[in-house]
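This follows on from our talk about sequence and fold. Please put the record directly below this note.
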Amino acid sequence: MTRYLLIFLATLLTGCSIGLPENNAVQMEALPPAQTGVLAEGAHRQTQQHPGLSGVTPLSRGADAFAARMLLADLATTSIDAQYYIWRSDLTGNLLLERLQAAANRGVRVRLLLDDHGTGGLDKQLVELQRHPNVSIRLWNPFVLRKFKPLSFTYDFFRLNRRMHNKSFTVDGVVSVLGGRNIGDEYFDTGPTALFVDLDMFVAGAIVPHISSDFDLYWNSPSAFSAEQIINMEQNASGVIRNAVDHYAHEDTEQLEEYRQLIADSGFIQRFSEGNLNLEWTQVTLVSDTPAKGQGRVPEKDLLAGHLVESVGTIESQFDGVSAYFVPGKDGVEAFSTLEQRGVQVRLLTNSLEATDVIPVHAGYAKRRKDLLENGAELYELRRQSEPDSVSSKLGPFGSSGASLHAKAFAVDGQKIFVGSFNFDPRSARLNTEMGLLIESESLAQSMHTAFDTGLHGTAWKVEMRDGKLVWLQPENASAEPITEEPGRTFWRSISLTFIGWLPVEWLL
């Protein structure tokens, strides 16, 4: 304890002199789309049949989502551009790093842009990759302190509080995976931690050049620093990635073998390798924050939330939203209430207290819950799943094995669906950079509407107001007695929720 106190005091005293170096990252643009190779030839063949359109298919299962990234890395011939908020140093994180390394060995140019808040324990792997002549790594709003990184907030809070929450994986300039998943075991249905219900989209066609151009804006932003400027490149990092994978082969054989089997059984791999991947060809719009948001230099009218409202247009009758971290705030309550007053049915799904992995966020949601219900919105809260597979295939397009919700999506009027990184919370709206795809698809939108119509198939509580008090219902069991005590509430959680609700921190959530 004394050691940490001394480090903290030293950081406070010297923080003013621990600044970022001058950013010397060289401008770099996306390579032209590949013309040869399995990906390019398949994409070009289908694009010619659907000129001006984009091909999309959801990746609901975590194993499929991971298999897609692994397979795409293996098939890359010219370039891989990957952008993520979190990249774990765990089984899936190291397996995918190994595939990026293998692609670079084949001559593929790899660009990896990571938010530095989510790179804990990964420095040596990044050093090993950065040393490869075909790999470039940049860190977004980096921490100068590589150990005890959170201490940096004591002297550089307002910069470090702005994070890059975007997620995309683009290969050969012709296909991409974009959505809500970070890189880590909990996002891909494996490992000892709680698994996440999440959603990615595999895309090809007209939208991919827009994703590549957006990546370039972030890559060349003043907030993106070369890893060589931030991480000690002199440390011994030879063979670190291979050793990390070998660790699972030797000490965690069960997890590795189980996951290899999951990938081998993935329907995505079979459909893709046989050329039978069923893509829906339609109009797709990329909605993304400008990277200047990472420096707090964007007028509120130019933020993603405003562009998204403009792109969606007038909502006529139905809005179903899924947000893992739902903190509507006063403005959100007013916006949803306005929709209800216009006759739009608003239904929202977020994590219950028993399922959430971020208690402060639930506190921000809970303080607005009654207002939302009193103004006509329907609220659903994902239950904590005793069996992760019990969620599988039950939540429409975002049906994935999981115990906690992480997806961010909404459907409008049975016509459009949005999938991306954007939560309905102040952090996504005003602090973090975000991105997503607005897809014109009756099938995907209706699938989400149908999931809500059926009460989410017993995976969620429905929250209502009765006699001025909140109750939790089981939509699949109309005869069950309402629950009057919030599921997952304990004495200490109650105190935490009440205390956090009093604090003026909603803008941070």
Q: What stands out?
A: The mean pLDDT is 87. The chain is about 35% helix and 20% strand.
